């Protein structure tokens, strides 16, 4: 089966079982104070910025905690069945993951221990 056909089937299956709102994706999490939801309706996953200042904050993408939905999202986004639940990127539109984990505490710790460098802040400005 072609990759394109697999993706179409995954999208159909996802539409049938998804039934989750984006709030359901992170309903099991204690989102830190100061983070803000910056999800757009056409995004593949909900996301947050880790700082009220979009230039200083990282973008955190959150996949579903439902294993079936997570699997289908992973197929849709990455073309693989298994991916991490949380992906941290420099900012919206930045295509490389800086940090990935299935553990939300690890994500928070990584962000707290790795403030953006002056170079990363300048790079963020180019995207925003």
Quick synopsis:
With 128 residues, the chain is of the alpha+beta class.
- Give the integer mean of the pLDDT values: 87
Class by helix and strand content? alpha+beta
In this structure, how is the largest beta sheet organized? 5 strands, antiparallel
Distance between the termini: 39 Å
Which strand order do you get reading across the main beta sheet? 1-2-3-4-5
Q: List the total number of helices.
A: 5
Q: Percent helix among the residues? A: 25-40%
- The Cα radius of gyration reads 15 Å
Q: Tell me the overall shape.
A: globular
Beta fraction: 5-15%
Count of distinct strands: 5
SSE order: HHEEEHEEHH
Number of individual domains = 1
Low-pLDDT regions: none
Question: What can you see in these coordinates?
Answer:
The chain has one domain (3-127). It is built from five helices and five strands. The mean pLDDT is 87. The protein has helices at residues 3-17, 22-25, 67-78, 104-113, 118-127; strands at 36-37, 47-49, 59-62, 86-89, 99-101. The chain has 128 residues and is an alpha+beta fold.
Write the layout of secondary structure elements.
Elements: H1 3-17, H2 22-25, E1 36-37, E2 47-49, E3 59-62, H3 67-78, E4 86-89, E5 99-101, H4 104-113, H5 118-127
Antiparallel strand pairs: 1-2, 2-3, 3-4, 4-5
Helix pairs in contact: 1-3
List keywords for this structure.
5-stranded antiparallel sheet, alpha+beta, about 130 residues
